[in-house]
Amino acid sequence: MSDIETGQFSIDDLENVQITIGKIVGAIEKKAQEEGVEIGPTPKPGISGLRDWDYKLLSRYQPVYTPVCDQCCYCTFGKCDLSGNKEGACGINMEAHQARETLLRVITGAAAHAGHGRHILHHLIDLYGHDKPIDVGPSNLLAPNTQAVTGIRPETLGDLEEVMDYVEEQLTQLLATIHAGQEGAAIDFESKILHGGMLDHVGMEVSDLAQVSCLGMPKSDPEAPLVEIGMGCIDSSKPVLVVIGHNVAGVTNIMDYIHEHDLEDKMELAGLCCTAIDMTRYQTDQGQLPRAKVIGTLAKELKMIRSGVPDVIVVDEQCVRADVLDEAKKLSIPVITTNEKIMYGLPNRSEDKPEDIIEDLSTFKEPGALILDFDVLGEVAPELTLKMSKIRDEIGIKALPTDEELQELSEKCVQCGACELDCPDNLPIMEAMRAGVDNDFSKFEYLHDKCIACGRCDQACPKDIPVLNMIEKASQKLIREEKGFMRSGRGQISDPEIREEGVNLVLGTTPGIIAMVGCSNYPDGTKDLYSVADEMLKRNYIVVMSGCSAMDLGMYKNEDGETLYEKYPSKFLAGNLINVGSCVSNSHITGTAIKVAAIFAQRNVSGNYEEIADYITNRIGAVGVAWGAYSQKAASIASGCNRLGIPVVVGPHGSKYRRALIGKPYKEEDWKVYDARNGSEMPIPASPEFLLTTAESIEELLPMLAKNCIRPSDNSMGRMIKLTHYMELSQKYLGHMPEDWYKFVRTETDLPLAKREELLKMLEKDHGWEIDWKRKKILSGPTMKADVSAQPTNVKRLCKGEC
Amino acid sequence: MVDTTKNTQIYATWGRKTAKPVNPKVAGKMISKAKRPLMVVGSEILKDDKLVEKTVAIAKKGVPVAATGHSITALVEKDIGAKYINVHSLGHYLGDKNWSGLDGKGPYDTIIFIGHKKYYLNQVLAGIKNFTDLKTIAIERHYMQNATLSFGNLKPEVHLEALDEIIENL
Q1: Cβ pair B76:A735 closer than 8 A
Q2: How many angstroms separate the CA atoms of A643 and A149, rounded?
Q3: Whether A668 contacts A111, CB under 8 Å
Q4: Domain residue spans of chain B
Q5: Which residues does B86 contact at the CB level (< 8 Å), separation at least 6?
Q6: Which chain A residues are Cβ-neighbours of B126 within 8 angstroms?
Q7: Closest-CA residue in chain A for B103?
Q8: Which homologous superfamily is B20-168 in?
Q9: Interface mutation target, options A69, A656, A700, chain B, most CBs of B under 10 Å
Q10: How does DSSP classify residue A599?
Q11: CATH 3.40.640.10 correct for A226-395
Q12: For residue A698, how many other CB atoms are within 10 A of its CB?
């Protein structure tokens, strides 16, 4: 009997009958067997599949709950006051409720990415077919997250459907646990959070694999092109089409239309948020120039709309302001929605003729349209932009206040302070208003970069002063100068790159990977990102960017007029700066860590998540930074990193995620692992100290990053390098030697060479260590041995003789 | 005498238990009476030299200092024994009765906060309020609703006056 394969079949004798075989039970295992791939113990794990691993992590890194609200209002029993960890009417206590709230956010984020993934996968399968090969560059391990989690080694777009089926099913199961009256243990909600985070990285990976394979995006390309970025790079004398969102599917039709009709020089096409990044990746894998510009992040959305510059706005999904249509309407800007996630109450014109839609929108019969047919969209958006540009010029749109009006508005302010209290960063708006009365608007300019353009000040003002517009008007000169370069997203790190750099990462001679991801809710402006990245790059860390952070980094230049993307090379090597791409490209960061375990260390990857995570936890010095994290997606991305043992630091606003995972370095029993060579226990340094925490300022963040790249597997050279950076950064930014530096010293060769004698003296004097001064050797004191052949593991079954 | 109890406007309702507004004199006396006080100083003090001055003056009255963020840069050479710690970690350790404190002398009973971002500290305080029995006193410019006791929302100059009054009462 021959094997049945998936696909479509016709039977000769039966007319008009077609049989479709979608999935075959046991197919993953069979295929793996044929290819000689060993499947690990947890292919497609259910909610409890990796619970033991989660418990191990959570026993060292305990959840720290900081509720945003003390009440629960989920069901009609409530509202229930849970303050003081009281139980509500359903029996849930504050801890478990906070964990549940976090879970809800994490799976919301994961669903956003997975929904995106499913949408673009459908779209691309429609265009290219199920058998379109996955092509993401010179790699054999094409889908590290997918393979580690599901055991599936996808080769075609069609293979990705089964992956999405799994993600969606698990997300539904997780969502079901949110319902009132079920789970009561915070720790099991915590395990579910980590499960949701893991799923998120699979969903993201599917999205990016599919689009990189089909849309001509750079394929692991270190030379991905530089792209213009900033509000100042938009030529407002031309018709301007602005796209906002995350899903580039429909936008590619717009780009094709513009290209095919030679409109590229006749209009500006620019994007906000991650669609912008993916627009600049589209059709650039053969060295072509990007066909779009990047305006910036979510924080620029309201500012861009209120500038009145866009002639048409197209939105797709995810981080798009809910008031785009209302804001655009005020300035006669038609809005086109293109995805079922955002429809703004607009009529569905998907079946209508482009010329009819253009006529209705350009005569303001409707403020916008829902267009789900991308061919229609492709024609309507650019043609409408060309038409609206003339119409809006003729009308004479007045967007921002005049200089005279700025002064008058300042006078209207009664200094009540409502705006400052409502401002997420409590910015000094009243001071700017006081100066504005005397025609000094420099204090508004100061606010420009600090302001995240949420518009809450406008809503709070009892005098209806348009505060945000005042900031924008006063900052026109700055805005005109907002021009930079971002390296377009290069996609995943290729297998050969991992082979080259993996050993340095595991031994610590490349001091670590700093992954700067996430959104634009910064505590003190966007320049902080530049400062952090530049400092770590100078110190030879690999800095990996993605999403909104990747954009904001390109906004600043050094004294030579260079952005960091121009200053630093972009290979996966120490001291290089990489942009993997948009939000869904974050999966390549965890994918890189998985690849190090799989390729450099030859660990089996398929369905072997726990072992891979254990390897990463103990050996790969990587820290994520989401300095401006605001979204549910950022929460799920961080949770996916956490399940792999990758710590993440968020900015102070991240405290509003209401839960962190922080270890206790003073509890020695928490900092022990097994040596897989013989199953004996071995002490390890308290690093990473946390899996998820906040930092107050970048000055605090920088030494934290260096310290939390330290791993048990560092060789002496690696530990010396990491310790040097930790001590130097503490001295530079905190003005003191860190108190715990000696706890990371195992032998004198771990000490920085230039300061070895001085540090040995300190060890003797301050910590009572015994030193042989003739040989300059440590005789006693350290709690850990330096043993490069030790095999640190948290998983007993991985020890010799345990299996 | 400065009245620091008037404006307790909050951004959102976060629960039924909110900080009792407190005047500097009472706050000062409570700090004095605490057996194991700890003053947690955030990086916002660096924005105003006078704030640093007042903070150091309070510390010199014998209140141990935890310096969070990068506030340590202004406190390190002031002979007050300030120790750096991350505020989120500190919030976690404070709830652990087995933590021996920054100086190894055992758990604290009264935690005083100054120099923090409003939204950030309120989150840290939410954890302490809900999961510990510690008394927390916010002597900040903004009303910290999740503290046990807090100043109301104050103008900068009034805040400095209030701190002087606390110092007088220590």
Answers
A1: yes
A2: 12
A3: no
A4: 20-168
A5: A693, A694, A695, A696, A700, A704, B68
A6: 66-68, 70, 658
A7: A739
A8: TPP-binding domain (3.40.50.1220)
A9: A700
A10: I
A11: no
A12: 24
Closest CB to B73: pick one of A71, A422, A734: A734
Type of residue numbered A480: R
For residue A79, cis peptide bond before it (omega within 30 degrees of 0): yes
Which CATH topology does A39-219+489-712 take?
A: Rossmann fold (3.40.50)
Q: What is the 3-state secondary structure (H, E, C) of A175-200?
A: HHCCCCCCCCCHHHHHHHHHHHHHHH
Give the sign of the dihedral formed by CA A351, CA A356, CA A362, CA A365: negative
**Residue recorded with tokens 């009997």:** A1
Sorted by sequence, the CB contacts under 8 Å of residue A536 that are 6+ apart come out as A514, A543, A702, A705
CA geometry: angle A232, A238, A244, nearest 5 deg: 60
Q: Which B residues 26-85 touch A at CB under 8 Å?
A: 42-43, 68-70, 72-73, 76, 83-84
- β-bridge pairing A513-516 and A622-626: parallel
Q: How, if at all, do strands A268-272 and A240-244 pair?
A: parallel
User: How much is the pLDDT for A517?
Assistant: 95
- pLDDT tier at A387, thresholds 50, 70, 90: very high
The reply to whether residue B69 touches residue A697, judged by beta carbons under 8 angstroms, is yes
> Nearest CB to B15: which of A70, A704, A736?
A70
Taking CA–CA distances from A423, the nearest residue in chain B reads: B11
Compare CB distances from B89 to A422, A424, A662 and report the shortest one's residue: A662
Q: Do the Cβ atoms of B73 and B46 come closer than 8 Å?
A: yes
Q: Would you say residue B17 has pLDDT above 90?
A: no
Q: What's the CA gap between A17 and A19, in Å, rounded?
A: 7
Testing the interface with B: which of A61, A70, A696, A726 to mutate, by most B Cβ within 10 A? A696
**How far, in Å, CA of A657 to CA of A65, rounded?**
9
Q: Which residues of A touch B69 (CB under 8 A)?
A: 695-697, 699-700
Shortest CA distance to A146 belongs to which of A210, A203, A218, A208?
A203
Strand intervals (E) in A341-447: 368-370
Residues of chain A with CATH 3.40.50.2030: 39-219+489-712, 226-395
Residue B69 DSSP class: T
**Which of A69, A689, A736 lies at the smallest CB-CB distance from B14?**
A69
CA–CA dist A695, A98 (Å, integer) = 21
Tokens of A685: 């340094």
Task: For residue B164, give the H/E element and its range.
Answer: helix B156-168
| Residue A1 banded pLDDT, cuts 50, 70, 90 | very low
pLDDT at residue A22 above 80? no
Tens digit of each residue's pLDDT (9 = 90 or more) over A647-674 = 999 999 999 999 999 999 999 999 999 9
